[in-house]
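Hi support team,

I've been running sequence recovery on a batch of backbones for a student project. Most finish fine, but this one hangs at about 90% for roughly twenty minutes before it completes. I'm not sure whether the input is malformed or the queue is just slow. I've pasted the structure tokens below so you can try to reproduce it. Let me know if you need the job ID as well.

Thanks,
M.K.
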């Protein structure tokens, strides 16, 4: 079985891997494959990682998101003349 590793907005790279599945893992992948209309178990593994991977590994921020955060920060600093922010203001800015 081949596993394809991709990150959105980044250079796509394919990594081949031979995997051995126990019967339960095979059943889970078969259900994912059917539920999402995927072409094979490699796609099912990728879907599983997409759904649950961020619980273990944080996704990398893309360039567009980083630019947006910098813009928001610069706008805030320009508007507020570098004054200190309370925790409540920070929560509001971060929509927490």
């Amino acid at each position: 079985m081949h596993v394809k590793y991709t990150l959105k907005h980044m250079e796509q790279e394919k990594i081949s891997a031979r995997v051995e599945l126990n019967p339960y893992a095979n059943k889970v992948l078969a259900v994912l494959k059917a539920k999402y209309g995927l072409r094979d178990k490699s796609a099912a593994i990728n879907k599983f990682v997409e759904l649950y991977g961020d619980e273990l590994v944080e996704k990398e921020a893309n360039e567009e998101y980083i630019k947006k955060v910098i813009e928001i920060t610069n706008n805030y600093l320009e508007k507020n003349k570098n004054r200190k922010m309370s925790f409540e203001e920070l929560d509001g800015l971060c929509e927490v």
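--
Follow-up from support: It reproduced on our side and the slowdown came from queue contention, not your input. The chain has four helices and two strands. No action needed from you.
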